[in-house]
Design goal:
The protein is an alpha/beta fold. It folds into 3 domains: 3-65 and 100-162 and 273-350, FAD/NAD(P)-binding domain (3-Layer(bba) Sandwich), CATH 3.50.50; 71-95 and 165-271, D-Amino Acid Oxidase, Chain A, domain 2; 358-428, no CATH class. Helices cover 39% and strands 23% of the residues. The protein contains 14 helices and 17 strands. The strands form 3 sheets. Strands 3, 4, 5, 8, 9, 10, 11, 12 and 13 form a 9-stranded mixed β-sheet that branches. The chain has a 6-stranded mixed β-sheet with strand order 6-2-1-7-16-15, with helices on both faces. The chain has a two-stranded antiparallel sheet with strand order 14-17.
Length: 434
Amino acid sequence: MRSVAVVGAGQAGIVLSAALLRAGWRVTLCSDLTAEQYLESGERPTACLFGDQVEYEAALGLDDFPDAPRADRIRLDLYTDDRLVALSVDAPLRKPALAVDQRLKFARGLRELAARGATVVTGSVTEGDLDSLAATHELVVVTVGRKTFGSLFARDPARSVHTSAQRTLFTVNVRGYDLDAHPRHRDIVFTFVPGVVEVFWVPFWDKDAGASRSIAVEAVPGGPADRFGAVTTASEGLAVLRGLVDEMLPGQASFLAPVRPTRETTWLKGAVVPAVREPVAVLPSGRHVLGLGDAVVLNDPIAAQGANNATRMARFFASRLGDYDGTAAWLRARFEEFWEVGRHANDFSEGMLVPMARHQRDVLVAASRHPEVGERLWEGFNDPSTLVPWFFDAAAAREFLARRGVGRWDVLRYRLGVAGTVLGRRVFRRPAPA
């Protein structure tokens, strides 16, 4: 029986372990927390999974959340600097999305994998421990990110665009809202002020409250929305968020007014420096380990690709490790094979951190009039490769729109319509609807 040691019981580690167990591997899963400690740990990122990844978890038997709310649509409201909605895109997702509290998810995953026969070892793992694991297993896979093994996997400068965080982050989970009064919030809502802030309102399954909403804020550092640095509790953060929404996103103020945190500890702030790292690290003994998930591909969460990309990587390697020949060269070659598709998630995430190109704005304007265009755009969250090349290349974007009956004159007319609507609302000071 082939053997693997998986270090880290997060998204990539749980999924890879489940897949390799199903394939007949002997799995040792190393977790720094017990299931009980996961449940009592601090808040973790929202981690919304989209269609294909949701289905893959279900195929692995990791979908033990039948009451968790599924999202079938995404609504984007693009605000101007003076509190008006320039345009809205409201389109269906091809497959439902699902966001489950990672504390609950990983705790259940640990218990389930132990029940299936995995050896679960609890405690911190050092680089020295990696050498011991590599001596007793055919393969060691490290799935934990920068905090534990920050220097283990070398940064790849050719694939890493940034050396500093491009957004400051704040997340809080809330309950107490009225979905009858705000039916749009039954699904995912995006509210953006370009160049200032992006706010994501996501149906969520909270470990304490059950059905709830997770609100994630991405603020441009040093900008007017970058105001969560002094927050120390969920209630403090929610008060700051209400002030931001009142000033910049008034259409969401009535939804936010009655809510309360699911728990005072259920909030998160910070920043991420996106990076791509070498996929294989050589230990002092000469043995090697493979990196997966955030350990080697760390994206800003703006495009919701962290957990999705971790799942894709685990699925890819699980499907190929049956042919593993024991060499680092084989692992590097498989990562390059993965990167042919995996890089599109990176490109999508990076693309959302910078101002949109003109052809991308044209796509967005067209999507506000044609739900089919919006549906294709939203499919990028599930599978970023579907955005290639039409979302990244101007000529391909024009061809993409033309095939759907949207020509240049249509886009110009839509743009003029958007401008006229915004101008009219500016004159009469009509705020965005809730």
